[in-house]
From TrEMBL:
It comes from the Eukaryota. It is an enzyme of class 2 (transferase). This is non-specific serine/threonine protein kinase. GO terms for biological process: recognition of pollen. Its EC number is 2.7.11.1. It catalyses: L-seryl-[protein] + ATP = O-phospho-L-seryl-[protein] + ADP + H(+); L-threonyl-[protein] + ATP = O-phospho-L-threonyl-[protein] + ADP + H(+). ATP binds at K334. It comes from Nicotiana tabacum (Common tobacco).
Length: 615
């Protein structure tokens, strides 16, 4: 992203990407005595605090008191915002704004835009009527301004300054100190990469500081502070005659118009060609894939699903509808939405389970790939997804221990088959109760292979982009280097939810009980794991010791170090009583990352593994 936020030995620094990066927020650390020590910054109790090896702490940024679960996110526009759970995630604080104000953000008014009391405008000359900048979009002044005549180093003798009074810059850092205005301006003129000379001095001083940025973002009006501090911005512009500017504008406009028209026509032709080529490649791929299931026409499935009128559910890539084939076989039809992601999900599912069969995997009966339609046809699972049966609610039927144990065993056998018994290892990568379906006899089957990945058996690790569901993601996803043990971790979370009858993150619970894994750690240390057993089931209470043993299997699967987690084949043997659970388990599932572990927090979407649970 354009913005980054880092914790360094000198403090907290927020930067905007340029060459070199420019600072728009800084909070210095005052009590750091050992720069080589393992210090870290953590968001704790509503504040960003520094922790050192000496057990001292210093609050760097204080925010509103915590009343419920919170998390912090660096947004795409450079704002560092705090969100709090209030029936849903709501913004409760904008941390940087308190220090730098609304006009202190690099792109608040776009490049070369001037921010004044939250309003955006373009730089204008106060000495003549010549315009050097214009709005990129008159209806959206916050998009910034563009140069009417581009500056070129080949014609540096025609560079001049556009003087802006009472103007400051967010990233003011002195390149030259104790200097005068003329020296500052000349320094910028001698350097072609310099885009402006920003000069400021105190009202009671004759000397000041000079800043020479190589890239200009938004400027700030400094009129309110001019009684104690004077500041000027001298923007470097190309000084051409009015006639030459008009002639060049006409030529550039004509050439640009013709070029744009040619580009548009070329893009349209290329888009149609690329789409047709992709469709041909996909058709060839599907026709030549061995062991493919039945291929249906779109009209056949539309008729079988009664015009897609019986909606069974909705997932990340589309909706699922009930239907019946001509031979009275009940089916579930998954209609994939979108184009790019839908195709990837479609091909992933067909490639993964189109030619494999196991009692613990939902059977893919067939598919449809016709024009823009992408549909998958599965066996119908009458009891729906597991989440409807294990989370607290008003169900008429509460699953007993025998049923829950069978469900756990079905899941582990399905994953063991994917990891160890197929020609290639198959990583599911999205194991959660919503993707585990139950038939009429409560047999559990894995479904939704849209995020799955095939890897060769010669590979011990694979590099891939983060995918899956927050709350079920293993810690190693942060490195993007994963193994099949990420599925083992997700399985551990699911087992814990089955045994406890609740979600791994419950915002409605008291603060000390919201995180199920934190609760597991505390109860394990107290020797009271039985307290976690689902209290809705009297039958579960009769098998407390067996349930606690299974809870320890889940804890084994949740080890932070993936090498210490069991394989799914081992889990199968443990559940069957052939192997004992590892005794020396680490219950510290959640630990803060030190500065040396995670130094930069990018403005990309917040990493789910860093957060406390699903949102």
């Amino acid at each position: 992203g354009l913005y980054s936020f880092s914790a360094t030995n000198s403090g907290l620094i927020a930067l905007v990407e340029s060459s070199p990066p420019q600072t728009y927020f800084k909070r210095s650390i005052t009590n750091l005595t050992d720069s080589k020590a393992s210090n870290y910054v953590m968001y704790l109790n509503g504040s960003l605090s520094l922790f050192t090896n000496s057990n001292d702490s210093e609050i760097l940024v204080s925010v509103a008191p915590v009343s419920s679960a919170q998390f912090m996110k660096l947004e795409f526009d450079g704002h560092l915002k705090v969100y709090e759970w209030q029936d849903q995630w709501k913004e409760v604080n904008d941390i940087f704004t308190f220090s730098i104000g609304e006009c202190g953000y690099p792109m608040v008014c776009g490049r070369y835009g001037i921010c004044s009391n939250g309003q955006c405008s373009c730089p204008k000359s106060s000495s003549d009527s010549t315009n050097y900048f214009r709005q990129i979009n008159d209806r959206q002044p916050n998009l910034g301004c563009s140069e009417i005549t581009k500056m070129t180093c080949n014609d540096s003798k025609n560079h001049r300054y556009l003087k802006l009074n009472d103007m400051n810059y967010f990233a003011f850092g002195a390149d030259i100190i104790d200097t005068d205005m003329t020296t500052c301006k000349n320094a910028c003129l001698r350097n072609c990469s310099c885009k402006a000379a920003i000069f400021g001095y105190a009202s009671n001083s004759s000397k000041g500081e000079c800043h020479l940025p190589s890239e200009i973002f938004s400027l700030m009006n400094n009129e309110k502070d001019k009684t104690r501090y004077n500041s000027y911005a001298f923007l470097k512009v190309q000084n051409e005659t009015q006639r030459k500017r008009h002639v060049n504008g006409a030529i550039v406009g004509s050439v640009t118009g013709i070029s744009i028209l040619g580009i548009i026509i070329g893009c349209i032709i290329f888009t149609f060609w690329k789409k047709r080529k992709e469709d041909e490649v996909e058709e060839h791929y599907l026709d030549n894939m061995p062991g493919m299931p039945v291929r249906f026409s779109y009209d056949d499935l539309k008729s079988a699903a009664e015009n897609f009128s019986k909606k069974l559910g909705e997932g990340g890539f589309g909706s699922v509808f009930g239907g019946t084939l001509k031979d009275d076989t009940k089916i579930a039809v998954k209609c994939l939405d979108g184009i790019g992601k839908a195709k990837k999900s479609f091909l992933a599912e067909v490639e993964t389970i189109g030619s494999i069969h196991h009692l613990s995997l939902v059977q893919l009966i067939g598919f449809c790939a016709q024009k823009s339609h992408r549909l998958l046809v599965y066996e119908f699972m009458s009891n729906g997804s597991l989440d409807k049966w294990i989370y607290s609610g008003n169900q008429e039927i509460v699953l007993d221990w025998k049923c829950r144990k069978k469900i756990i065993h079905d899941i582990d056998k399905g994953l063991a088959y994917l990891h160890d018994e197929c020609r290639q290892k198959i990583l599911h990568l999205d194991i959660k109760p919503q993707n585990i379906l139950l038939d009429e006899k409560y047999n559990a089957k894995l479904s939704d292979f849209g995020l799955s990945k095939l890897i060769d058996r010669t590979q011990s690790k694979v590099v891939t982009t983060m995918r899956g569901t927050p709350g079920y993601l293993a810690p190693e996803w942060l490195s993007a280097v994963i193994t099949e043990k990420v599925d083992v971790y997700s399985f551990g979370v699911v087992v814990l939810e089955i045994l406890c009858g609740r979600k791994n993150f419950e915002p409605s619970e008291p603060e000390e009980q919201r995180l199920l894994m934190s609760l597991l750690k505390r109860k394990a240390e107290e020797g009271r794991l039985m307290d976690l057993i689902d209290k809705r089931s009297e039958d579960m209470q009769l098998y407390k010791e067996e349930v606690v043993d299974t809870m320890q299997v889940a804890a084994w699967c949740l080890q932070r170090d993936y090498t210490k987690r069991p394989s799914m084949s081992t889990v199968v043997m443990v559940i069957e009583g052939a192997v004992d659970v590892e005794k020396s388990l680490d219950y510290n599932f959640l630990v803060p990352q030190t500065v040396s572990d995670i130094n930069m927090i990018d403005s990309a979407p917040l990493l789910p593994s860093i957060l406390s649970g699903p949102r």
